[in-house]
Amino acid sequence: MRLVLPAELQQLLVGETKAALPHECCGLLIGAHASDCIEVSDIAISDNLADDPSQSFEIDMRLRLRFQKELRGTSKSVIGHYHSHPNGRVGLSGKDKAQAWEDQMVWLVIAAGEETFILSADLYDAAAQTFQSLVIAVEQG
After folding, report:
1. Is 52 exposed, middle or buried (0-12, 13-18, 19+ CB in 10 A)?
2. Number of compact structural domains in the chain
3. At 47, is the pLDDT very low, low, confident or very high (cuts 50, 70, 90)?
């Protein structure tokens, strides 16, 4: 399955990652599940409320509740969240996987290297308690 991400949002995610270093950045992914892909239409940047933001992330639940309320009755919803790995680790960590509980939520990770930033995305299946890797399709606007 594909995760469709507009190029301007990819650039914004990389910028947020750079600005947060040496800490993790985090936020929500807004969009919609389609039959053959998941489309990201916006992101909502959150303060990282973790006790140690250099090692973990915690999205402000008030932000999540606000967007769930604002998006009610529209074709869009909170489809997942993103966070960065300032240590450059690509993909989900064991800690990330242990925190997953919501079905069909996208977990997008931005790995911060010295010169490059690598995005990876996974979709959580709560019934099977597994993640499916998503192919990220960056689209020019």
Report:
1. exposed
2. 1
3. very high
H-assigned helices in 6-78: 7-20, 61-71
Do the Cβ atoms of 69 and 34 come closer than 8 Å?
A: no
- Position 113 scores a pLDDT of 86
**70: pLDDT confidence band, cut at 50, 70 and 90?**
very high
The CATH number of residue 112's host domain is 3.40.140.10
**Helix, strand, or coil (residue 34):** coil
Radius of gyration in angstroms for the set of CA atoms belonging to the chain, rounded to a whole number: 14
Picking from 124, 132, 108, 141, the residue whose alpha carbon sits closest to that of residue 13 is: 108
CA distance 119 to 122: 10
Full domain range(s) for residue 93:
2-139
- Contact call for residues 66 and 33 (beta carbons, < 8 A): no
Scan for tokens 């606007």, then name that residue. Answer: 141
Residues 6+ apart with CB under 8 A from 53: 20, 23, 24
Question: Buried b / exposed e across 100-134, counting CB within 10 Å, b at 16+?
Answer: beeeebbbbbbbbeeeebbbbbbbbeeeeeebeeb
